[in-house]
Amino acid sequence: MQYWPLRPGSSEHRFNIAHTANLFARVGQNRSKFLAADLLQVIGSGVPLAQCTIFAYPQRRNAEVFSFADRAREVSLPAISHKYVQRFFGLDGNQQVMSQSHCVTNTIVQRQSADDITHPEYRRICYEQPQIAERVALLTHCESNRWLSVNFYRGREHGRFSAQEMNYLEALAPLLIQAVRLHYHAHLQANELPLLLAERVIKQQHVALTLREQTLLRLMLSGLAVEDIAEHLGVRPVSAATYVKRLYRKLGVNGLRELFGLTTQAQWALS
To answer: Which parts of the sequence belong to the HTH luxR-type domain (predicted)?
Structure first.
């Protein structure tokens, strides 16, 4: 297993401008299901690839499959991806990369072959069964200590990535990573906005909240009334109101308006 900070590309390969334009034009259109396929189209035939899978690694949660695409392999990629996030992601070499703080500010390139994997079931299900020779992962750190991993899988029929092909992937990597970050951020805003805002508040105020306080914060940022918060927490409205006031004090704000203000500061614009 190898990894290194992304290097400046010097490839002379061309890529399809129309596919690239579509990739960015579709941000916010809830197209995460097709994002991996779009990346394969941008890369084109310059680098033969079998599969592309994009994983998200939220803090203290299992890995999540964000998007996947398969170029006519004889196995079910959704099933393999599901088994990976349920059983094997902790064994992935990219966990070593993501655990190192000096990697946070960079895009990291990681190469992993079947020979690098000692766990027999992980190797069999994720590499031998789909006949994968090698994987290249582009790892980027995002808001609220999330990581994204854009994984490109090489079929055995094409062997390992050549130096020229690696140079081409690294040349395209900044464009691909930025597109994935934008699509993922749009996905969070559309599907997990209260959680995203709560994570911003916690990071901004440098406070440690209990699990119950984190749940309460998400409910407050969902715009729920005290009565609805009480129902979700299983307490009386008067108790919920007390919990809300205590949390405001702990966060150092005077009300919901100031709370939302913490989540919309300029520092979050390009996270």
So the answer is: 206-263
* Stated pTM of the model: 0.76
Which amino acid is residue 260, in one-letter code? F
pLDDT tens figures, 31-79 = 677 899 999 989 987 799 999 999 998 876 788 899 999 876 666 888 8
In the predicted structure, residue 270 carries a pLDDT above the cut 50: no
List, edge to edge, every strand of the sheet that includes 146-155: 2-5, 108-113, 132-142, 146-155, 51-57, 64-70
- Domain with residue 237: its CATH number is 1.10.10.10
- Where among 138, 157, 191 does a domain terminate? 191
pLDDT one-digit tens code per residue, 124-161: 999 998 899 999 999 998 876 789 999 999 999 999 99
In the chain the first and final C-alpha atoms are separated, in Å, by 29
Query: Same domain for 44 and 95?
Result: yes
Q: Give the sign of the dihedral formed by CA 104, CA 109, CA 114, CA 115.
A: negative
Handedness of CA 18, 24, 29, 30 (dihedral sign): positive
Residue ending a domain, among 175, 191, 207, is 191
Quick one: tokens of 121?
Answer: 């079931």
Is position 226 within any domain?
yes
**Domain-embedded: residue 5:** no
CATH at 115: 3.30.450.40
- pLDDT of 46: 79
* 87 and 217 fall within a common domain: no
- Among candidates 119, 59, 61, 55, which has minimal Cα distance to 81? 55
